[in-house]
Design brief:
This protein is α/β, with parallel strands linked by helices. It folds into two domains: about 140 residues, Nitrogenase molybdenum iron protein domain (Rossmann fold); about 180 residues, Nitrogenase molybdenum iron protein domain (Rossmann fold). Helices cover about 40% and strands about 15% of the residues. The protein has a five-stranded parallel beta sheet with strand order 5-4-3-6-7. A five-stranded mixed beta sheet has the order 10-8-12-14-16. The chain has a two-stranded antiparallel sheet with strand order 1-2. α7 links the parallel β6 and β7. α8 packs antiparallel against α9 and α14 runs antiparallel to α15. The longest helix is centred in the first third of the chain and has 22 residues. It starts with a helix and ends with a strand.
């Protein structure tokens, strides 16, 4: 009798261990350096930012249709052109629960009520980030695995790492490897071309042109500011702005006179309907003429016509959405070509962007993502 009791107990222990193994099949180290247990089955996911969809779709085209149950409302609000494209492919997107529009309005209660197995958050950005310990702890206590990725805070350092982590978590390691092969090859085209430069080109990067009336918000040692460094530029604001972002005066620009001016565009098909909008319109749904006209308006602001970069036709604009996208390598290529046209005469960032859409996106390339001043 005792033998059968021991055998029964042993079988129960084996069964319990088996269930535990199924509940937590693996662990990953996320971009916050946390070791996170990942459920074996993940069919309900919430996103700290809706714009993550464009990067997640690189690995799993069916994920937006089948596994996303909740997300922040930033995608349709801040990039309506791309959202409209995604909605055509994934008609269910409008029915996905919105958990708020920013980190301040993110609803933990609604997130838990959706019963997800996984929450994907950013180190920085618009949604709950790595410093929001309360949200992470409440979700974890509810049995929801939380991982952090990063396409925004330090994108060029963390994009490849984030894609690798997502490949592990989503069971799409091969797809992750395929994208990383593309990413590293395209990034190497820039680094190899920068090996012998006669001098560094000085650059000023104006961030989110038209968001405010003053001059001038800029990025230096973080976010899109790192694209300037990767493209071999000398960011003239770095000494004044030791952090990732800050503001400099128009007088500083006029006295320093950078070789190249680059503005980031946060305008979209909605704002572009207003011909007086101060925002540079770029991205999905924006034609070249509209983009160029919006840059021309931005450069017509008081003082900007006196910049040598504007006078010499070395003023450009690029979509701010590259700061939230795994396609940031394309932006680095475009900037490198602007800074060093001779060294990168054969580099074709437009072809790289076309290949990104053809191979890794569920929607076609339809828009203007950067533009040069006339």
């Amino acid at each position: 009798m005792k033998f059968f009791q021991k055998q029964t107990i042993a079988l129960c222990l084996v069964s319990l261990l088996s269930v535990a193994a199924q509940v937590s099949a693996a662990t990953v180290t996320d971009l916050a350096g946390r070791t996170v247990a990942i459920p074996a089955k993940i069919d309900r996911i919430i996103l700290g930012e809706g714009r993550m969809l464009t990067s997640l779709a690189i690995l799993d085209r069916e994920l937006p249709r089948q596994r996303i149950v909740g997300m922040l409302g930033d995608f349709e609000q801040l990039d309506p052109g791309s959202y409209a494209q995604y909605r055509k492919v994934y008609p269910n997107l409008d029915q996905v629960a919105r958990l708020g529009r920013s980190s301040q309005s993110f609803s933990v209660e609604e997130a838990i009520a959706l019963k997800p197995q996984l929450a994907i958050f950013s180190l920085g950005g618009h949604g709950p980030n790595v410093n929001d310990h309360a949200t992470m702890q409440r979700l974890s206590k509810a049995g929801i695995s939380v991982i952090y990725i990063d396409f925004n805070k330090n994108p060029l350092k963390n994009t490849a790492l984030s894609i690798k982590v997502l490949g592990q978590v989503l069971g799409r390691k091969k797809a992750a490897e395929q994208y990383l092969d593309f990413y590293h090859v395209e990034m190497a085209k820039v680094s190899q071309g920068l090996r012998q430069l006669p001098r560094k080109t000085s650059v000023f990067l104006e961030s989110r042109v038209g968001l405010s009336q003053g001059c001038c918000e800029t990025l230096t040692n973080g976010m899109l500011g790192t694209f300037i460094t990767a493209a071999g530029g000398d960011n003239i604001a770095s000494a004044l702005v030791p952090g990732s972002h800050g503001t400099v005066s128009l007088e500083f620009l006029l006295s320093t006179q950078p070789d190249v001016y680059i503005g980031t565009g946060i305008g979209n098909p909605t704002t572009a309907r207003d011909s007086n909008s101060p925002r540079i319109a770029l991205g999905a749904g924006i034609d070249h003429a509209t983009a160029q006209a919006s840059l021309k308006r931005a450069l017509a602001r008081p003082g900007f016509a006196q910049l040598n970069a504007v006078k010499q036709g070395r003023a450009f604009a690029i979509s701010h959405q590259f700061n939230y996208s795994a396609a940031n390598v394309v932006a680095v290529q475009a900037i490198a070509k602007w800074l060093y046209p001779q060294q990168f005469a054969t580099l074709n960032p437009q072809a790289t962007l076309q290949r990104f859409y053809q191979q890794f996106q569920p929607v076609p390339l339809a828009g203007t993502f950067w533009v040069a001043g006339q």
